[in-house]
Amino acid sequence: MPYFTTEDKQFFEKNGYIIKYNTVPDQLIQRAIDVIWEHIDADRNDSETWINAGPTGNLPCTNYPDVQSLLHDGPHIDMAEELVGKGTLKVANNPFCKMIYPTGENDWSLPEKGHMDGYTVKGVVSTFTLGITMNLNDVVHRSGGFTVWPGTHLMAAKYFKTHSILNGIEAYTKPLPQPVEIFGPAGTTCFWHHYMMHSASKNCGSKIRMATVSRLRWQDTHDIMFETPDNMWQYWNGIE
Ligand SMILES: O=C(O)CCC(=O)C(=O)O
């Protein structure tokens, strides 16, 4: 039974992302959350301490087996290969644990812009293929949800046809599309194309937004990473 319908794949092709619900077994989530709490400077049982807590950035727990099993013991690699091609991918980054702490504020708005990963340090190409963002707890609207700018993968692919792939800082042209904040219960997962503009939204909720971002790459990335094929889906057997 496939994970993605033809409509899902068409949505991914056009928008650069697709959301699936309930993709992470609950016991995997609970074990990872226990590890995550050991790395947060706040009291798990006192929500007052969660406001503007830390650390920010990736928590230093990517190497813990209970964090890695979110990616390795769930369906996500198979799901990703359904989009990219069976047997084509390997793990570029095990799950980065990304917390968005409540701000204690109420003036929520979508971020004005986000960023691309992998091409924005001048002279460095650090390609991956697909990002996978998993919500580990229930993320409601206005509460730090992963945010994408639909269609920006097409913008970047067009840009790289006439500009060096060694510098993607200017790859997105204005006006930017309206961003989409992705929220949903624990186990909501977004698969996103590596050229996508993305960010996290501000957290005006009461809980810490707990999510992981993993990255998969083509097994032969090093052979093809400087290519900008006429058909950007050339190496995506599930999409082209
Ligand atoms: O935490 C988030 O939702 C955004 C993550 C992000 O921007 C990234 O992985 O580069």
The CATH topology annotation reads as Jelly Rolls
CATH architecture: Sandwich
Shape: globular
- The multimeric state of the shown protein is single chain
What can you tell me about this protein's structure?
With 240 residues, the protein is of the alpha+beta class. The chain has one domain (6-224): Jelly Rolls. The protein is built from six helices and nine strands. It has helices at residues 6-15, 26-38, 65-72, 76-84, 152-162, 221-224, and strands spanning 17-20, 58-59, 89-100, 130-135, 146-148, 180-182, 189-193, 198-200, 209-218. Strands 1-7-4-9-3-2 form a six-stranded antiparallel sheet. Strands 6-5-8 form a three-stranded antiparallel sheet, with no helix packed on it. α2 runs antiparallel to α3 (65-72). The protein is globular, with a radius of gyration of 18 Å. 2-oxoglutaric acid is lined by residues 98, 100, 117, 146, 198-200, 211, 213.
TL;DR?
The protein is built from 6 helices and 9 strands; from the N terminus they run H-E-H-E-H-H-E-E-E-H-E-E-E-E-H.
Key phrases:
Jelly Rolls; 23% helix; 240 residues; binds 2-oxoglutaric acid; globular
